[in-house]
Design a protein that fits this description.
Blueprint: E1 2-7, E2 31-32, H1 35-39, H2 43-54, E3 60-62, E4 68-70, E5 75-79, E6 94-99, E7 102-109, E8 115-120, E9 123-130, E10 133-137, E11 143-147, H3 148-151, E12 160-165, E13 169-174, E14 180-185
Length: 188
């Protein structure tokens, strides 16, 4: 079985910093937080928990192109690009989950390992890697930053995506209570 976890933290200034092209750090107007905030009730955890609760807990089946996975109970996962048979760290995750015809939300990895966004009916939450640490942008617009030295203390609690490939591709989001989203296999 192959397992992978991509945590959204930047350990050096290469590929990190401004996401708006201005050269300014995206954490400039953010409230500084600690690992306790990250492990407590926060906007990322709340959004991921709601996303996961909406998703089907039944194993689904990919279509021939591996762009859509359907579950027996009416769940649908739609991918922006085909999911490779052997997913690696270069795959840019971008998918929408539906349940019984209603959208649970959309997860998108940001380019260059710079973070991720999760849009749910409750709004969009972002986790962005900046030169000074991990920045969280909540649906209400509030911003929080976890300094880089703190981020290493709670590395395995940081937002990210995890997947394993055995009989099926199983995908979870980290930094939440139960981020298990889906399991999809090829048609038999």
């Amino acid at each position: 079985m192959r397992r992978a976890v991509l945590l959204l933290v930047c350990a050096s200034s290469v590929g990190c910093g401004s996401d708006d092209g201005s050269g300014s750090d995206s954490s400039s107007a953010a409230q500084t937080v600690t690992c306790e905030w990250l492990m407590g009730d926060n906007c990322w955890r709340t959004s991921v928990n709601a996303f996961a609760q909406c998703a089907s807990d039944q194993r689904g089946t990919f279509d021939a192109e591996r762009k859509v996975c359907t579950t027996p109970d009416g769940g649908v996962i739609r991918f922006a690009t085909s999911v490779p048979h052997d997913v690696d760290f270069d795959y840019l995750w971008d998918f929408t989950i539906e349940s019984q015809g209603m959208s649970c939300g959309t997860y998108k990895a940001l380019p260059n390992d710079s973070g991720a966004s999760l849009s749910t009916p409750g709004g969009e939450v972002r986790s962005e890697s900046g030169g000074s640490g991990q920045v969280f942008v909540c649906p209400d617009g509030s911003r929080f930053t976890l300094p880089i030295d703190q981020a290493f203390s709670c590395l395995f609690s940081l937002p990210g995506i995890a997947w394993s490939e055995a009989a099926a591709l199983s995908v979870s989001l980290t930094g939440a209570d139960d981020g298990q989203l889906f399991s999809c296999g090829d048609p038999e």
